[in-house]
Amino acid sequence: MLARLRAEGLTSDQLAACFRRMLRIREFEEALGDLFTRNLLGGTSHFCIGQEACAVGVVGALRETDWLVSNHRGHGHLLARGLDPYRVMAELLGRTDGYCGGRGGSQHMCAMDLHFLGTNGITGGGIPIGTGAAWALRYQGRDEIVVVFFGDGASNQGTFHESLNMAALGKLPVLFVCENNGYGMSNPAASSVAVPHVADRAVAYSMPGQTVDGMDVVAVMQATQAMAERVRAGEGPALLELMTYRFCGHSKNDPRVYRTREEEATWGERDCLTVAAQSLRDRGAAEAEITRLREEAHQEMAAVVERALAAPTGDRDHALGGVYA
Amino acid sequence: MPEELRQIFYSKAVNEALDEELARDPNVALIGEDIGLYGGAFGVTRGLFEKYGPRRIQETPISENSFVGMAVGAAMLGLRPVVEIMFMDFIALALDQILNSAGKLHYMYNGQVSIPLVVRTPGGAKGGYGPSHSQMLSNLFVGVPGIKVVAPSSAAQVKGLLKSAIRDPNPVVFIENKRLYPQRGPVPEGEYVLPLEKAVVTPGEQVTVVAYSAMVPICLALREALLPRGISLEVVDLVSLQPLDRETIFASVRKTGRLVIVEEACVTGGVGAEVSALVAEHCLDALEAPIRRVGAADVPIASSIELEKFILPGADDVLRAVRGVLEW
Ligand SMILES: Cc1ncc(C[n+]2csc(CCOP(=O)(O)OP(=O)(O)O)c2C)c(N)n1
Ligand SMILES: [Mg+2]
User: Fold this and answer.
1) What is the pLDDT of residues A132-189, one digit of tens each?
2) Which atom of ligand 1 is the closest one to the Cα of A51?
């Protein structure tokens, strides 16, 4: 599938599969938001509503054995990698069926068997971890690569600069993927990143940097595939910047005072789901089919929530044990 | 320790442990600044780069937080990285990855990963290095779960404990000491491992002196000096600062009824404070005098060697504290 991608784009089936994956993430996040509204969940979560094409496009262009490192906004990455939505939801709800038995939650979720090295609650904290995983892969002579997801805000952390520098020096097999959604919490990228694009920073670390439309899942896939190939071939790391937008607040309870409703509406016209649905229509998909996919994803996630809410939480031993290996 | 053992420097014993573990396990790799041909700021890794090459001895730019983070990521995929932080003060730059990644991942990922990582670093003052290069920062890790902290006090210990730390499946902050590097001691050749969590007792009767790292030789010397005067100190070398070997500490205090705690770190809020609290909590009935703590004054370590002496604890301070608990 992937070998043909660059020359011909996606087949209609492939595009439909991407659309379906993005829908499931959107519906998962909406269902989760609803749980917060109903006060059934503690803490907070960072929804990736609007950024689904980044997760689906990037992960879809990789091998299943490639490793992923994510950040605090990681539900899309988790689901795109194929984690069971039920077990992800169970983790968010602090249930023992969750991937980390409720110890990790949204920002600390890992699935080693699916080569998912974890979401991360420290902005920029995952960047050196992914770089180190790439060091280990090279050390062990393996042909997998690592993809590290982070935001525009994280690109201002020292770890971003330190890690890109070290990855470049060691020609490590790591692809850095910045989801630039225009804001780090309330802080606009324009007032926190001193260059026009995060990808411009690649120059400082002698690696290719590219800015791509993060609302177009096909463009994301194509760019990722090209960069991943290069990284896998041993040519060193690369930096991919995906221009995107979160239609939700930074986390729950964000009144979004730092941006205008007009700006949101403008981006809304380019919602990755709208873009993908239009491509499907252009290729002759029936409206009824698109509606059916939406409905299906909605039902699936409703069932996931119901099942997860009924699952048990851990006991005292589970809370207090397991600190040391 | 048998007579015939050769005497080597503490720094050489570290080197020997690294060398043997590199030879034993292909997943062991060293990572840090200037640890290659240069051999590290204190010459501890000298010769290893020539022997094992750049793949096993990974030199890094000056990026402490990220190379510790890299070591964590590599440990998740099966390496056993041994990081060198040039001076313990610089560990401040890597605390995020130590506290938030190394110490938490095993628990928060519900046992899916373990982090067999060693962060070696020389703490303590050695005369004139000044505020940013002299501190014993053992205090930083008190109350940080998920990390083991070990502070060897002799050449033999540092070899045996470092080998164990490298083989341990948990992150270990391994506190060496600049003052101990040039001290010699008898060290077994070849395979020699010591348990990470066991305090070492040099027996005595009247006062328990709990110490670690470079304060141990000072307390042992004082013990020798006081024996002819009929004062018998029991020196408990903590070895492990986290977890603490509580039973050994309690047993000693129950035996002597008097406790002096000696450390090179600031007295406030550190390992000594924790030992003191534990003993007060569990052995109050056995105490015949208030607990006394000896440590660095709560000030940065001044550069001037003369000023440094006022700040750091020495044998006189320990002696005064011992007298204090005996005469109470
Ligand atoms: C070290 C650290 N500082 C601050 C925060 C609080 N925080 C969480 S996410 C975030 C914004 C991150 O922005 P960006 O990297 O652009 O990701 P986005 O949220 O936009 O996806 C902040 C400030 C944190 N979690 N960790
Ligand atoms: Mg952002």
Assistant:
1) 999 999 999 999 999 999 999 999 999 999 999 999 999 999 999 999 999 999 999 9
2) 21
Which of B33, B60, B72, B76 would you mutate first to test chain A, the one with the most A CBs within 10 A?
A: B76
Domain B8-186 of CATH type 3.40.50.720: no
Is the whole model's pTM more than 0.90, yes or no?
yes
* Domain boundaries defined on chain B: 8-186, 200-327
Residues of B in Cβ contact (< 8 Å) with A166: 60-61, 63, 66-67, 70
The string of pLDDT tens digits covering residues B24-60 is 999 999 999 999 999 999 999 999 999 999 999 999 9
Q: Looking at B16, B64, B176, B263, which residue is catalytic? A: B64
Each domain of chain A, given as residue ranges in start order, spans: 12-312
- With contacts defined as CB-CB under 8 Å, which chain A residues touch B112? 100, 110-112
Gap from CA of A184 to ligand 1 centroid (Å): 6
CATH fold group of domain A12-312: Rossmann fold (3.40.50)
Q: For domain B200-327, give its CATH number from 3.30.70.260, 3.40.50.920, 3.40.630.30, 3.40.120.10.
A: 3.40.50.920
ipTM: 0.96
- β-strands A187-188, A174-180: how paired? unpaired
